[in-house]
Specification:
Length: about 130
């Protein structure tokens, strides 16, 4: 079981604007900020999560060298749809419209968006096939 994940972004303020808007649709919000001073010069970091527990981190401090893929759980298909719309409205680029992905399994419903750095962010609901 993964407790949390993090990756660097090129522009922390730009990424913050994107993730504040895109993740809100999944009930995920900013719960912790770590400054450059707090890390002893190793970058600033933003922790997103629920109920005061950050589990999705972005940070500055070094250039991103390769895109990352992260899939976030959604409670239903409507939330996947809302994530996709919110992420596009926040400046993300479509990387797969909401829909069933039966190659993964019959009830796999997901949407994919590229963040401002090209990271592939997915919202997925594992439910019953339509």
């Amino acid at each position: 079981m993964i407790d949390h994940i993090g990756f660097p972004v090129l522009d922390l303020n730009r990424a913050r604007t994107f993730y504040d808007r895109a993740l809100a649709s999944l009930g995920i919000g900013l719960v912790m900020e770590v400054t450059e001073e707090m890390t002893g010069g190793h970058g600033a970091h933003l922790g997103y999560g629920r109920e005061g527990k950050p589990f999705f981190w972005i940070g500055s401090g070094r250039a991103a060298v390769a895109a990352t893929h992260v899939a976030l759980s959604a409670p239903d298909r409507a939330t996947v749809d809302a994530f996709h719309a919110a992420a596009l409205a926040a400046g993300g680029r479509d990387n797969g419209a909401p829909g069933l992905r039966p190659d993964y399994h019959p009830g796999y419903y997901a949407a994919f968006v590229l963040d401002p750095d090209g990271n592939n962010i997915e919202a997925v609901h594992h439910g019953e096939p339509a």
